[in-house]
Specification:
Blueprint: H1 11-24, H2 34-50, H3 53-58, E1 62-67, H4 70-75, H5 91-96, E2 99-107, H6 118-135, E3 140-142, H7 146-154, E4 158-165, H8 174-182, E5 185-189, H9 218-230, E6 233-235, H10 241-250, E7 255-257, H11 274-282, E8 286-289, H12 293-296, H13 298-306, H14 308-324, H15 331-345, H16 350-364, E9 369-371, H17 392-400, H18 405-425
Parallel strand pairs: 1-2, 2-4, 3-4, 4-5, 5-6, 6-7, 7-8, 8-9
Helix pairs in contact: 1-2, 8-9, 14-15
Organism: Edaphobacter modestus
GO biological process, one term: proteolysis
Keywords: Signal
Length: 439
């Protein structure tokens, strides 16, 4: 199914109308077979247009479910409408890449903000994101439903959405979870790379010093149930394998993986096995492919892991420097170290990224794949992807592999819109109490 603004005609109708009108102006000067010739030409030009990756990309609703840009809003006092200045995503690059909607990641570094301070940092990042909309209301629109994304697109505005990355942000409180939802948050990644008090993470699952829970605790299952009730997307990126399966068993609504790739191609614990991909498809959810080279290219992953001891030494020295000042390490400072080591390895091949899209499609199906770039949260994207302006290259590469315009409309945003609608349709509305009933 192709998702567009409801008032727009589909691509074939639009091109047929334009070409037919052009053909009609030529009819008086051509012979008796001019109508047939014009029809043939119209058909050829329509087919050419619908197979043109630029036309297909620009006629799609393009949605990215994960970018870590909010840290820039808060720590660097940088605005989304400013020049990139070393980043991977801003308003101009989004417009150039026809990116229509972005889920901004509200991520609190647990190593820099203690458990009892994570909510404050979460609220600061939410505020920083909402402030972007307030400062540029002519360009940006806060969206909390699928229909609002389409409405913003129709108005020519960039859709701003939010997702919390890491369940530690709720500080074991369903009340805080509900408050975040009231502020506009529409997904939560159950864990980040750290196991929290109610869900195991893939990031530390092999660390014997960490207390694990064998997946979700009973409270963790309550969190999933409450997210279902609210109509909040349950995000299983970052979770351990056992947590994933507990979520699949617990949830009453489709799930998303906001930024995960395929473990069959790149053996990172953060990636999803083929069995998991099939389970998400059965759940009618969607897997959004991550752009981090360590998750999409096995050779790059091994080189990155080999650099870990040296990277950690520099990160520890940086942390000691900021701790002496009584300050948390800003992401821009730690990211500078990671970028240095990433530059020493070089860029991962662009084809490695495309291979992950292709694999997820072949295993889970075209209805269960999307884009989760991880822009501004990774040290470097793969070759050919420097910013959101380069997203049309994804469409061109996949169409070169034989995927159709309809396939691309689904992958670029249609699948996420479907899941978003399904999750919110499953939301449990409070009962309507007639006057005189209840106390």
């Amino acid at each position: 199914m192709s998702f567009r603004v409801p008032t727009q005609t589909n691509e074939k109708q639009r091109f047929m109308r334009i070409i037919a009108l052009s053909a009609c102006t030529l009819l008086p000067s051509v012979g008796p077979f001019s109508h047939a010739q014009a029809t043939s030409r119209a058909h050829k030009e329509t087919m050419s247009a619908t197979q043109n990756p630029v036309v297909v990309h620009n006629s799609s609703i393009v949605i990215d479910t994960h970018a870590d840009t909010p840290q820039r809003f808060v720590d660097e006092h940088w605005n989304f409408t400013d020049p990139l200045n070393g980043g991977m995503l801003n308003y101009d690059s989004a417009k150039k890449g026809n990116l229509d909607a972005q889920f901004f990641s509200i991520w609190v570094d647990p190593s820099q903000y203690p458990a009892n301070a994570s909510a404050r940092r979460t609220l600061d990042l939410i505020d920083g994101t909402l402030e972007q909309v307030r400062r540029a209301p002519d360009k940006l629109a806060l969206c909390v439903t699928a229909d609002q994304i389409l409405a913003a697109h129709k108005q020519g505005k960039f859709a701003v959405l939010m997702g919390i990355e890491g369940g530690h942000s709720i500080e074991n409180s369903l009340g805080l979870l509900r408050d975040y939802y009231r502020l506009g948050v529409r997904y939560m990644t159950l864990t980040w790379s750290n196991t929290n008090d109610w869900a195991d993470s893939s990031g530390d699952i092999d660390d014997p010093t960490i207390l694990h829970h064998n997946g979700l605790t009973p409270f963790g299952k309550q969190v999933v149930a409450e997210m279902n009730r609210l109509g909040m997307l349950v995000d299983i990126s970052h979770v351990s394998d056992k947590t994933f399966w507990d979520v699949i068993e617990t949830t009453k609504a489709p799930v998303i993986a906001s930024h995960s790739s395929a473990r069959a191609l790149t053996n990172a614990q953060r990636n999803m096995t083929d069995e998991m991909l099939r389970a998400v498809a059965k759940n009618n959810g969607v897997v959004m492919v991550n752009f981090f080279p360590a998750f999409i290219d096995e050779q790059w992953r091994q080189a990155w892991n080999a650099s870990k001891p040296e990277r950690e030494k520099e990160q520890e020295a940086l942390e000691a420097e900021y701790k002496a000042k009584g300050l948390p390490v800003p992401f821009v400072a730690s990211d500078k170290i990671d970028r240095k080591y990433a530059a020493q390895i070089g860029r991962a091949p662009f084809d490695s990224l495309i291979a992950h899209f292709d694999h997820v499609i072949k295993v889970a199906g075209i209805n269960h794949v999307g884009i989760g770039t991880d822009f501004d949260g990774i040290p470097v994207p793969p070759e050919g992807i420097d910013s959101a302006a380069d997203l049309p290259k994804i469409t061109a590469a996949l169409m070169a592999r034989g995927y159709t315009a309809d396939d691309m409309h689904k992958l670029l945003g249609g699948n996420l819109l479907r899941v978003f609608r399904d999750v919110q349709a499953a939301q449990q509305k409070p009962p309507v109490i007639a006057p005189g009933q209840g106390q």
